[in-house]
């Protein structure tokens, strides 16, 4: 067991979503299709037989690194299956990738991403990887970590205000893509020359944002688990302060910000559930009219179906009123009836020591979006 764990820790192909270093073979399901890949896709059409009259779909989805994949067109008389190592078109030369999806499911994936199957911009899949292709690919991937450390040292020596996050060597070893993050524009012309001489490859620089940086570098979230963006999340959606307000969360930037210093992606996970639950609650702008004075809304407990109100004259004294009672009071007010006091309907009474200012918190949160 300890030997297996050590192999995983020393495995440079974890960045490709592989549990082991690929052997010099054409196919290995246990190595290439399971375990570490956050880009794994379930082919729910796998067990459905194809119609004989239809020619097999000529495009496949190929995983290049554990952060991106692309579609490639098959040449005539070449058949591949999931898990195959294949040589695909790149500029310059060729790259190696892992076949992730084949058949009709690829057509649906392309439609989902608004890519036309007859587009001339779809790159070519050359062939299944040969023995020398795999050996060269393995050697290139194994030197990515040391190259990353060396690149960071070079950028520090040049006093550049940038941070290298990841390096991806092309399968044929002709090109390397350097992913970096920076707060301002960086003049890296001298850096490119040094990197090209140092590693003997064509250098391509790609700037990424802080969210993409967290996904590539990884880490542990406040929940105690690995970051979603580095383990399974590959379809990023914008996170706004509205999601926090809908879920009645405290608008504290330090609690709502993730490792990337932006709002946590998990704020979106339950937002739709909260939106549906809030549909049965009345508007928070409605004031309750009583003989003791008007009362305004303070907060809502969605799970217990309680709404907290305070009198305008005594904002620090909050009363928790069940949802059905609130609706009853609102209906009475619409019928021109005024109830005696809220205490007759209150379930819980709470004294607030400090009046919360949501406007200030919202302004502080805007920079984290």
Care to give the gist of this entry?
Helix content is 29%, strand content 21%. With 369 residues, it is α+β, with helices and mostly antiparallel strands.
Description:
The protein is α+β, with helices and mostly antiparallel strands. It folds into 3 domains: 2-138, no CATH class; 143-210, GMP Synthetase, Chain A, domain 3 (2-Layer Sandwich), CATH 3.30.300; 281-355, no CATH class. Helix content is 29%, strand content 21%. It has 13 helices and 12 strands. It has helices spanning 2-9, 29-32, 104-112, 131-142, 144-157, 189-199, 210-217, 228-231, 241-246, 253-256, 271-277, 323-334, 358-365; strands spanning 59-65, 68-73, 85-89, 94-101, 123-128, 163-169, 175-181, 202-207, 295-301, 306-311, 314-322, 348-351. The strands form 3 sheets. A 5-stranded mixed β-barrel has the order 1-2-5-3-4. Strands 9-10-11-12 form a 4-stranded antiparallel beta sheet. Strand 7, helix 6 and strand 8 form a beta-alpha-beta unit. Helix 5 (144-157) packs antiparallel against helix 6 (189-199). Mean pLDDT is 84; it is low at 1-8.
């Amino acid at each position: 067991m300890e030997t297996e764990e050590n192999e995983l820790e020393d495995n440079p192909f974890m960045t490709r979503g592989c549990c082991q270093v690929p052997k010099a073979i054409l196919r290995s399901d246990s190595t290439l299709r399971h375990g570490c890949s956050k880009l794994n896709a379930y082919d729910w059409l796998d067990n459905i037989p194809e119609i004989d009259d239809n020619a097999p779909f000529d495009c496949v989805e190929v995983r290049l690194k554990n952060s991106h994949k692309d579609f490639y067109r098959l040449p005539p008389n070449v058949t591949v299956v999931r898990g195959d190592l294949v040589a695909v078109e790149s500029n310059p030369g060729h790259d190696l990738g892992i076949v992730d999806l084949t058949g009709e499911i690829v057509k649906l994936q392309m439609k989902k991403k608004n890519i036309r199957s007859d587009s001339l911009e779809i790159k070519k899949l050359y062939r299944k990887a040969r023995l020398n292709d795999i050996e060269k690919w393995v050697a290139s991937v194994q030197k990515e970590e040391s190259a990353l450390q060396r690149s960071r040292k070079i950028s520090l020596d040049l006093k550049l205000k940038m941070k290298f996050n990841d390096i991806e060597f092309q399968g044929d070893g002709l090109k390397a893509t350097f992913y970096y993050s920076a707060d301002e524009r960086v003049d890296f012309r001298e850096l490119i020359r040094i990197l090209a001489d140092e590693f003997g490859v064509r250098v391509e620089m790609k700037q990424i944002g802080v969210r993409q940086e967290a996904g590539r570098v990884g880490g542990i979230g406040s929940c105690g688990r690995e970051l979603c963006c580095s383990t399974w999340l590959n379809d990023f959606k914008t996170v706004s302060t509205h999601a926090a307000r809908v879920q009645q969360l405290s608008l504290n930037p330090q609690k709502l910000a993730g490792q990337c210093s932006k709002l946590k992606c998990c704020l979106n996970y339950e937002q739709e559930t909260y939106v549906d639950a809030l549909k049965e609650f009345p508007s928070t702008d409605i004031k309750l009219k009583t003989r003791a004075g008007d009362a305004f809304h303070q907060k809502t407990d969605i799970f217990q179906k309680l709404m907290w109100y305070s009198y305008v004259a005594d904002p620090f004294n909050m009363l928790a009123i069940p949802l059905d009672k609130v609706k009853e009071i609102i209906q009475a007010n619409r019928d021109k009836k005024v109830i005696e006091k809220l205490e007759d309907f209150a379930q819980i009474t709470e004294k607030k020591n400090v009046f919360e200012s949501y406007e200030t918190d919202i302004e502080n949160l805007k920079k984290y979006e």
